[in-house]
Amino acid sequence: MKSQDIGLLSTLRILIPFYIDSLETNWIHKTWGIPEKIDSSFLLDSGKVPKDKENRMDSNQKYYLQLMDELEERILAGGHIEREEADSMLGLPDDLTMKLAALADRIRIEFIGNKFDACSLINAKSGRCSEDCVFCAQSASHKGASEVYSLRSGDEILKAAQAAKESGASRFCTVTSGGALNEKDFDTLIHAIEKVKSEVDIALDASLGFLTPSRAAKLFGAGIVRYNHNLESSRDYYPSICTTHSYQARVDTVKLVKESGVSVCCGGIIGLGETPQQRLDLAFSLADLGVDCVPVNVLNPRPGTPLEHAQPLTPIEIIRTVALFRMILPKATIKLAGGRELNLGDFQGLALRAGVNGMIIGGYLTTRGRSVEDDLRMIYQAGFEISQAC
Ligand code: SF4
To answer: Domains of the chain by range and CATH?
Structure first.
């Protein structure tokens, strides 16, 4: 065989695979309609940003990708996000929203694993509240359409706790309207809680308004292991949502619970007209207070209240907010609370993989929720296990 033939053969041997490759690729592209240029953003997670992608990335994207990598490394190592960095994250380009969600999810997995807090509420005393919170249908200051009834009996509260346990909830929270219960109602409730404690294996929470040290001691002695008292919003926005008591009064109650060594559940409501910066103010105040559980309610505008016609937040705004809350409170339970179904709709599942590890199930104080079956299915499908430990 002449040398030039050998040369041609070896060239063909090299070229044929390329030719076959290109044939194959063209056929694959044509047959399956795969675009010539494949967006390889999934490679970002492995950090290997293809040159062409990196070249096409604008400096803003590069800035945020680098910032998120730094924050991930620091937070997973036990460090914290600084306020300026969190403010900066509010400007995250929309096309990096899923990266933010994934980052928050990794932080949740690192510090909490797949434990999920499924909390069931009883509205044990409703309406006729002397406070004027602008979002609340139970306030006597508004023409809100909430039911009005006095304290439920011990048997009714026990039945509700048993139903919560049977429904699959890990926590049962007794809630009463009003700044604080009168002495008689408070003593009645202590007996009811002691009865539930002795008969139902479920974590017992309460939300009874402002507390005194002696009431706190009685309550926690009766079996309450976590106390809810939300800050609701940021300190500077609070006067716009309530005028009958101060923000500091709420902070003092949270501190009192913290000092008594009982777990603190303290969060708020977003979508009240506050700015994204004020949402961060709330999250950093909660982090400073060292709260254990953060319920994030999203306004469900109630007829007859001053916020009846409030502009709703978008699901993506809500998801970005809970993800940032996870970054600011890496070890806390971040719990989706009221307004979840209405405001997140089909995005609820995504929120569960964007830093959230808890939900209120089975309905809310004055509004219904979706079925517990649907909620439990979503929780398990998202890879969680319901646990009293979070
Ligand atoms: S949120 Fe609580 S304190 Fe405020 S009006 Fe409603 S029941 Fe009263």
So the answer is: 3-109 (no CATH), 115-386 (3.20.20.70)
